[in-house]
């Protein structure tokens, strides 16, 4: 395994938070901007989520993303590409 070099993108070292190409383990990997989502959840649901994520070998954040994508796919809800979102429908975010 090659040593990981420190990445720098807009002042963010190691954690790349911009829409550029990053060098990770000697390979080029595309990165995309992400949005932060913070919410409160019943502790029992959080524990169930943690167990589900662990069983799937996923992070909690990735497990939530998979669940949302599956929900949208099952119901025919299109997921807009990054940059296509517009939140001025009076919906609280």
Describe this structure in words.
The protein is an alpha+beta fold and 93 residues long. It has two helices and four strands. A two-stranded antiparallel ribbon has the order 1-2. The chain starts with 7 loop residues before the first strand and ends in a 19-residue tail after the last helix. 0% of the residues are buried. Mean pLDDT is 73; it is low at 1-25.
**Secondary-structure element pattern, one letter each:** EEEEHH
- Largest sheet report: 2 strands, antiparallel
Strand order of the largest sheet: 1-2
Mean pLDDT: 73
Report the radius of gyration as a whole number of Å: 17 Å
Terminal-residue CA separation: 42 Å
Please mark out the parts with pLDDT under 50 across 5 or more consecutive residues, or reply none.
1-25
Q: How much helix, percentage-wise, in residues?
A: 25-40%
Strand content: 5-15%
Dominant shape = globular
How many β-strands, per DSSP?
4
Total DSSP helices = 2
What layout of secondary structure does this protein have?
Blueprint: E1 8-9, E2 12-13, E3 21-24, E4 27-30, H1 43-55, H2 60-74
Antiparallel strand pairs: 1-2, 3-4
């Amino acid at each position: 395994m090659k040593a990981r070099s420190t990445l720098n993108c807009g002042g963010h070292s190691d954690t790349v938070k911009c829409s550029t190409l990053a060098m990770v383990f000697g390979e080029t990997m595309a990165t995309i901007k992400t949005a932060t989502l913070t919410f409160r959840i019943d502790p029992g649901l959080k524990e169930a989520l943690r167990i589900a994520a662990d069983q799937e070998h996923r992070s909690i954040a990735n497990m939530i993303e998979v669940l949302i994508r599956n929900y949208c796919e099952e119901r025919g809800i299109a997921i807009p590409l990054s940059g296509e979102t517009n939140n001025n429908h009076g919906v609280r975010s």
